[in-house]
């Protein structure tokens, strides 16, 4: 699921290249309605950072909760770091060759800390290949403490199975990376 048709097209192309035929949904994760229920919902790649308020986070978790089967599991990662209120020096964010288009891509990133939990990420992308181009993009990104995220999940009815500091399920002891596994409770 993605709110961007462009990102869904990329996902579909990548999956098809590896022989997979995914079912993809164009929807906003704050307000989706599907006829299906799931045993597992994963929100990867720190996607929760684009939910800038507790209201948005609650909408996401409520929509997920209603789409989980009894005892269904939600797993997601997110950023817990405190953001310095300053501008960073532009830096190399990414470089490499795209595996499907063979374009060389170089990305320059600059971050502006707006609040201790909110940053503006500016990107300039250089594509070198058959169709050379330069794109400029920006996004607002929010961070949130692990304890606060746990409290939001509990307010929706989730039971917390684990709060981890890495994908090996090591206990979360601080740091910017946090992964939560939460199970649908029976009380809602």
Textual characterization of the structure:
The protein is α+β, with helices and mostly antiparallel strands and 188 residues long. It contains 3 helices and 8 strands. The strands form 2 sheets. A 4-stranded mixed β-sheet has the order 1-2-8-7. A 4-stranded antiparallel β-sheet has the order 3-4-5-6, with no helix packed on it. A hairpin with a 2-residue loop joins β4 and β5. The chain starts with a helix and ends with a strand.
Helix and strand layout, with pairings?
Blueprint: H1 5-17, E1 38-43, H2 54-67, E2 68-79, E3 91-97, E4 104-115, E5 118-128, E6 133-142, H3 146-156, E7 158-164, E8 177-184
Parallel strand pairs: 1-2
Antiparallel strand pairs: 2-8, 3-4, 4-5, 5-6, 7-8
What key phrases describe this protein's structure?
188 residues; alpha+beta; four-stranded mixed sheet; 39% strand; 20% helix; Rossmann fold; 2 domains; four-stranded antiparallel sheet
- Uncertain runs: none
Major beta sheet summary:
4 strands, mixed
Strand content: 35-45%
> What is the H-and-E element order?
HEHEEEEEHEE
**In the CATH scheme, what's the topology name of the largest domain?**
Rossmann fold
Query: What order do the strands of the largest sheet run in, or round the barrel if closed?
Result: 1-2-8-7
Rg over alpha carbons: 18 Å
Task: Give the termini distance in whole angstroms.
Answer: 24 Å
Shape: globular
Average of pLDDT: 95
Structure classification? alpha+beta
Q: What helical percentage do the residues reach?
A: 10-25%
The total count of strands amounts to 8
What is the CATH homologous superfamily assignment of the largest domain?
Answer: Vaccinia Virus protein VP39
Number of helices: 3
CATH top level label of the largest domain:
Alpha Beta
Number of domains: 2
Q: Using the 3D structure, state the CATH architecture of the largest domain.
A: 3-Layer(aba) Sandwich
């Amino acid at each position: 699921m993605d709110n961007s048709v462009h990102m869904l097209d990329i996902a579909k192309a990548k999956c098809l290249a590896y022989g997979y035929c995914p079912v993809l949904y164009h929807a906003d994760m704050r307000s989706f309605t599907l006829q299906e229920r799931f045993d597992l919902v994963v929100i990867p790649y720190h996607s929760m950072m684009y939910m800038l308020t507790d209201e948005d986070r609650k909408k996401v978790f409520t929509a997920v909760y209603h789409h989980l089967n009894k005892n269904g599991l939600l797993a997601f990662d997110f950023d817990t770091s405190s953001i310095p209120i300053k501008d960073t020096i532009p830096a190399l964010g990414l470089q490499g060759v795209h595996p499907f288009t063979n374009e060389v891509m170089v990305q320059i990133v600059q971050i502006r800390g707006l609040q201790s939990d909110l940053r503006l990420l500016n990107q300039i992308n250089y594509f070198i290949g058959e169709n050379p181009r330069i794109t400029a993009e920006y996004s607002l990104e929010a961070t949130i403490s692990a304890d606060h995220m746990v409290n939001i999940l509990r307010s929706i009815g989730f039971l917390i199975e684990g709060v981890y500091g890495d994908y090996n399920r090591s206990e979360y002891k601080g740091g910017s990376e946090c992964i939560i596994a939460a199970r649908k409770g029976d009380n809602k």
